[in-house]
Each structure stands twice: as C-alpha cells, then as structure tokens.
Specification:
single chain; 280 residues; Rossmann fold; six-stranded mixed β-sheet; four-stranded antiparallel β-sheet; 23% strand; globular
Length: 280
C-alpha cells in the first residue's frame, strides 16, 4: 500500500516552493539530451522544444526511450540508482538541473501523471487532491476552494463533489486517473507530463481523459507519451517520433514537427512507416 511515508521529504535545507496560482504555462527546451542506466545508453542527443500552451505527443515503438525522456523532464530519472544524463533541460530559460531550482521545486512546476492511476489508497478523494501540497510543504490557502478548482479542471468535480470524504480507491479507473490529474494540478504546475495516461482505461474513460487534456491545454503545457496513433492525432498539436534503429542502440528523435505534418507528410520515410502502422 502506497502512503505519503513512501516518499522522502524535501531536503531540510531547501526552502519550500511557494504556491503561485498565477504561474503561466512554460516552454520546455531539451538540448542534446542523452541518458544511461548504468553502462547502457538509452537515449542519444535528443533535442526538442515543447512549447507553452501546446500538447506535445511523444510517439514511437516500445523501448525507444519515450518514458525515460519524459522522466528526465522533471528530474525523476535521477532517482534511479545508476541513472545518468547529459545535455540540458530549460524551463523558460532556466536549467532545471542547475543550482537555481531544487528537485522539489522542479517537480512542483513540472507535474506528472503515470500510466496506471495511483491514488493514495489510505486517503479520501479530498486528501488525495491535497497530497502534493503536503509532500512539497506548500501552504494551501483555502483548501476547499483549491480542491474544487483542481477537480473541476480535471473534469471530475461534478462526479465526486458529494463524495469527497470517500476513499480515492472507490472511484472507477477513469475517475482515479482524473483524480491523479487533479492532484498534479493542485500545486499549479506550469507543465504536466503524462505517461500513457489512458493505456489502462476503457474507451469511454479514455475519451473523457482526452477531453480533459484538450480543456487543460489552454492554460498548461502538456507533454504526453502515447502508443495510440489515433490518440496522438486527436490530442496533440506537435509530435516527436522516437526510434531505436538497431537492437542495442539508444533511442533517438527521428523527426519532430506539427502533428498534422508528421501524420500526413513526414520528412522521414521511417516516420510514415510507423504512423501508418507498418511497424511498431
């Protein structure tokens, strides 16, 4: 059972990040990013701009480094023993691996939603929404207002407003995933990373989550990993195609550009082969 005790507290010598509801969506710039797990290189010099107010989809076959790249974007890769990176990631021009931002501050500005819904089972719906604030030691202000606003943005408020003191695990799979989105939104991130958020959901729940992503994209930068080409076409305006060209080699970005162009008229024939279903 996962509880707050499973997560290490922020380092005591770091000032807790302050909640800023006025934060604007930010641009993420990855420059020449390479990654390793121990001696094994898994990403090779990936460069990608993920623009503010935009949904960027990361596509490609399994094992090509998409999820690793996503975790590098909010410093989750570094918590894996033996993991290493090279290159630079800028959040509106500030190096997220530099001295200006702690890991905790980075993760409040760049939130993440995982493949499998992971509400804290010992917490109520309301407590789940507020959990990120507690983990980062951020003052919440009016908690009732924040809970309602976060659940509304995640498209869940009307379904749970009379059930806030029930356990988060009492919700359906799709509702649990939107609860996790609300939890991420409660700290007012500038960027939201989503790692195959619909892969464990039924088609109806998938549609609702996709609608939620579309609604959120007006005021938050979103980067989503998906194996579903139709989903990438529906929800994103920009795509990056990752590929491992030979067994044992690291993943690379083969092509990046407007989603419509990558699907209709890509520059690289390998991109066309993938989006048209010839492999992957």
């Amino acid at each position: 059972m996962t509880t707050l005790d499973d997560f290490p507290p922020p380092a005591p010598d770091l000032e807790p990040p302050r909640l800023d509801p006025g934060r604007a969506p930010a641009t993420l710039d990855a420059r020449e990013v390479s990654a390793w797990f121990g001696p094994r290189k898994v990403l090779e010099r990936c460069t990608l701009t993920m623009a503010a107010h935009q949904v960027t989809a990361l596509i490609g076959p399994s094992g090509c480094g998409k999820s690793t790249f996503l975790r590098i974007l909010n410093r989750m890769h570094e918590v894996i023993p033996g993991a290493a990176i090279a290159g630079r990631i800028d959040l509106d021009g500030v190096d997220i691996y530099g001295s200006a931002l702690s890991a905790t501050q980075v993760r409040t500005r760049i939130g993440m939603v995982f493949q499998k819904p992971n509400p804290f089972p010992a917490m109520t719906i309301r407590q789940n929404v507020l959990a990120g604030l507690k983990l980062a030691r951020i003052p919440a202000g009016d908690k009732n207002e924040l809970v309602e606003a976060s659940l509304t943005r995640a498209g869940l408020w009307n379904e749970v407003k009379d059930r806030l003191h029930e356990g988060g695990m009492t919700l359906s799979g799709g509702q649990q995933q939107r609860l996790c989105i609300a939890r991420a939104l409660a700290v007012h991130p500038q960027v939201l990373l989503m790692d195959e958020p619909c892969s464990a959901l039924d088609p109806i729940s998938t549609r609702v989550v996709e609608e939620t992503v579309a609604e959120m994209s007006s005021d938050i930068t979103i980067v989503i990993v998906t194996h579903n080409m139709q989903q990438a076409a529906r929800v994103s305006s920009f795509c990056a195609f990752f590929l491992v060209e030979e067994f044992g080699e690291p993943g690379r970005i083969v092509e990046a550009g407007a989603t419509r162009k990558l699907f209709d008229n890509p520059d690289d024939p390998r991109t066309l082969d993938y989006v048209s279903g010839r492999f992957g």
